Amino acid sequence: MEFPSFDHLNVWRACANVRVWILFLLLLLLKSDIACSGSDYLVGLGSYDITGPAADVNMMGYANTGQIASGIHFRLRARAFIVAEPNGNWVVFVNLDACMASQIVKIKVIERLKARYGDLYTEENVAISGIHTHAGPGGYLQYVVYIVTSLGFVHQSFDVIVNGIEKCIIQAHENLRPGSIFINKGELLDGGVNRSPSAYLNNPATERRKYKYNVDTEMTLLKFVDDEWGPVGSFNWFPTHGTSMSRTNSLISGDNKGAAARFMEDWFEQKDYGKTDSVVFEDDVLLRRISNIIPSRHDNHHELLELATSFQSPPGRPVSKTSSVAKRVRSAHRKVDKPRFVSAFCQSNCGDVSPNVLGAFCIDTGLPCDFNHSTCGGKNELCYSRGPGYPDEFESTRIIGERQFRKAVDLFNAADEEIEGGVDFRHAYIDFSQLEVTISDQGYSEVVKTCPAAMGFAFAAGTTDGPGAFDFQQGDDKGNPFWKLVRDMLKTPSKEQTDCQRPKPILLDTGEMKKPYDWAPSILPIQILRIGQLIILSVPGGTILSPSL
Ligand SMILES: *[C@@H]1O[C@H](CO)[C@@H](O)[C@H](O)[C@H]1NC(C)=O
């Protein structure tokens, strides 16, 4: 397959040159892994704002009807990379500062890309995934369950996300240039804790023994290096929930991952790049608009003049070769072409990983919550987890963001394993309501089947990151007659479904509720991208990387 729009780059022309070919063949004979032009890929990165409506819209994540946006903590972005193999395949990965991607968003994005680029970008080779912030505007998903609290579909939320993804892919496309990709992995131990440690203990001991911790602590980072410009960005994956900001927060925020991305982009722009130990925050030197050395009275003209003259102007320096105006203009001119550094902090298998690392405590007594049910004196709504900046959620967001940022910088600076090999992709729709699964353990083997989706009573208890209301409890395997009555007014689960879901008592039979349209998805889009030895498996809610690296 040809890569139609990059012919003008003439990047691979070198390969057509006979002498280079001979040299190339010689190198092959020598079993060298040096490719014909020094880099194996075309790489492009892009980034665009997706902040959305900052007032009067319910926020996605906590399913809390009272959590309505009323301002901005910091803005949200979509960040994308494109990797293309010359005369081969190409793939796109988009990371959204949103709770998750959505199928309807992707359909719209692909429609727009088709109008612009023909068949270059399709649902097959574009993966879109979210960082799981719980502080972004909601209403952009197509299933009823996800838009109940936003009182329906919110066009403003939807449009800004579709638009931002399209724009960041266009930017990445226009930045496509020869480059290399490096990969590095490392452990980050203080970025998340298991928020359901009692549930984790229900896993068989033989399985638990395979892992050192009860959460995944690995961060994997890709570093993108332009042949001409040097490093142009990085994407990393690490699991921790976007719940540093609480269920009562009303400011739009990228939470800890959005913060980490900004810290890293700022760090790079501030030219600290290359100095491993120079990760410093300059909180203390923030410029104040009103200097506190100037007294507030207005009748002190004379004193102010004296104060002003007491400051000495710097003596100035003779113009050198590097500081001349001509040189500065030239370098500024050159910088216009330089792509902006893009750094994305992507979500992976964050299931029960909480950024509120101090643990869960009762807001009335200050004591730890009940271990098995996350309750306080039987009440679920009093049990809250604490972030490292407790009680300041902005501080917790900053700290967990900073921890991921620092780890990413370490991995970035030390990344030296190069990604090599072909680019490929697979896309499939898998019906999760009727999958057959073989369970085998020590000689025992049984084939079981999945069922349509259903939310259990424990779901309504929420988690310690955002407890639910009423008398629901985590770990509830019985249910309660009152809520079953309420449930039956919506939909009484069939006997088959009840048996299939057992021992989970069904609160909402979402997988079988179809009015006015589907309440929950049964069919999930699965996207697999391969770049050399790296395999990226992505669903709208998150991404995992090949464990075989
Ligand atoms: C939690 O539940 C397990 C299993 O039912 C039980 O053995 C354990 O004692 C309980 N722990 C606490 C602290 O209640």
TrEMBL record:
Positions of the catalytic residues: 354 (nucleophile)
Top EC group: hydrolase
GO biological process: ceramide catabolic process
Entry binding sites for Zn(2+): 132, 241
Keywords: Hydrolase, Lipid metabolism, Metal-binding, Signal, Sphingolipid metabolism, Zinc
Domain Neutral/alkaline non-lysosomal ceramidase N-terminal: 41-541
UniProt key word Glycoprotein: no
GO molecular function terms attached to this record: metal ion binding; N-acylsphingosine amidohydrolase activity
Gene Ontology CC terms, in alphabetical order: membrane
Pfam families found in the cross-reference section: Ceramidase_alk
Signal peptide positions on this chain: 1-37
Cofactor(s), names only, from the UniProt record: Zn(2+)
Cofactor: binding comment: Binds 1 zinc ion per subunit.
Catalytic activity: an N-acylsphing-4-enine + H2O = sphing-4-enine + a fatty acid
InterPro entries found in the cross-reference section: Ceramidase_alk, NEUT/ALK_ceramidase_N
EC number(s) recorded for this UniProt protein: 3.5.1.23
Record keyword Lipid metabolism present: yes
Entry-linked PANTHER family: CERAMIDASE, NEUTRAL CERAMIDASE
Similarity comment: family membership: Belongs to the neutral ceramidase family.
Name recorded for this polypeptide: Neutral ceramidase
Source taxonomy: Eukaryota, Viridiplantae, Streptophyta, Embryophyta, Tracheophyta
